[in-house]
Amino acid sequence: MRTAAFLYPWDVVGDPDAARRIAGLGVQQVTLASSYHSTRALTPRHPRHRIVTARHAAVLYPPDPTRWAGRALRPYPQDWVPGADPFGEAARALADAGLEVHTWVVLAHNSRMGAEHPATAVHNAYGDPYPWAPCIARPEVRDYLVTLAAEAAVRPGARGTELESCGWYGLAHPHAHDKTGQLPLSGAAQYLMSLCFCPVCSAGYTGLGVPAAELRGAVVRALEPVWAGASAAPAAPADRAGERAEIGALLGADLAGVAHAWREGSARTLQRAAVRAVRDAAAGEFRVLLHADPAAHRCGANAGVDPADVLAHADGVVVPCTGDDAVRTDALGPFADRPSGTTVAANLTVVSGMGGRPGALAADAAHAASLGAGELRLYHAGLASDRDLAAVRTALGVLVERSGG
Predict the structure, then answer these.
(1) Of 129, 133, 197, 325, which is most buried by a Cβ count within 10 Å?
(2) At 52, is the secondary structure helix, strand, or coil?
């Protein structure tokens, strides 16, 4: 079973043993970040540092100045990893260790852009901006994201790409000193708080037959019990069908239908354009996968998709599968009837401190395979402890033995 591990360039740059150590896990591929959001990351084995603070969303390679000349929206450079091209340096080291390198491109998740260009951000029903969440329905945002996808995906030495947050981002975001968890929100309430009412989206709702003010009013009314503390406990994270039914009950079928149609149409437009731009930029065979959730109404790093639609134009999807058998069944089931030749990769967290199950990796991978997953993604080899990595190495060895390889 083909397996890839996620890495940041700073996991490799400055550590002469990193590439060899990753290759020794038994993976065939590394999915290496070339465009990433702000984060604070632990590097438990690096000889020069333990904490890397990426202060804002940035590209980890030198962007092409001619591509971005005259544009108001452009990628930000980084200065927390030494060298002019940390992605390129890391990619070369990994390739020299026998690993295939694919790019990991984060798109619609950029707090700095939203702070410097507030009109580009999602604005909720109360008028509050979400600086970390660009509104993908805005033409200038979509053009920026598609251009970034092509540049950040097709880096020298890369054989493919995985596009993260290629769709809507919303309320959920681990913000600094976050104070939003005191009133638990169901999946439906998260959706309502993630609906955008910027001028472009408001015009979109109206164009589909419902005045934006009517939809906004319905959202505000539906959320009033939440603020009063009377909301029910959140739906189970994997209850995709239940979430959608709850949205319909809260808004009414007609209003919910308009919201879904506008947002899902905007997401499909971005996804198709991003995949096409990457393919146009690539020379020869180049795999394009999307990090995806099979519930089209969901937003976040694993963008909501229509399973049939996304696999009509992308080469495959990377699906979050960390948890029990029910979680994986719910996540992978909608992709069971995928077209021949497309890929479904099960993404399993292997960092114990982040809820991962490295000790159960062999069993979880076997279950994912029984549901149709043809590949594995391991999140995240740079963040995992030595003990976690030892468990991964053992599990991948078991899988090789079972396959007769």
Answers:
(1) 133
(2) strand
Q: Are 270 and 296 in contact (CB under 8 A)?
A: no
pTM over cut 0.85: yes
Compute the distance between CA of residue 236 and CA of residue 392 in angstroms, rounded to an integer.
28
Residues 6+ positions from 130 with CB-CB distance below 8 Å = 114, 121, 122, 123, 124, 169, 170, 171, 173
- Listed residue (363, 356, 368) closest to 395, CA to CA: 363
For residue 405, count other CB atoms closer than 10 A to its CB.
Answer: 7
Long-range own/partner contacts, residues 64-69 (CB < 8 A, 24 or more apart): 64/151, 67/147, 67/151, 68/147
- 279-287: long-range pairs with CB below 8 Å, 24+: 280/150, 281/150, 281/151, 281/153, 281/154, 282/153, 282/154, 285/159, 286/154, 286/158, 286/159, 286/160, 286/161, 287/102, 287/159, 287/160, 287/161, 287/315, 287/316, 287/343
- Contact, 60 vs 103, CB < 8 A? no
CA atoms of 353 and 23, how far apart (whole Å): 23
251 backbone dihedrals φ, ψ, rounded to 5°: -100, -20
Report how far residue 32's alpha carbon sits from residue 219's, in angstroms, rounded to the nearest whole number.
Answer: 39
Cα torsion for 113, 118, 119, 125, to the nearest 10°?
120
C-alpha span between 196 and 167 (Å, rounded): 13
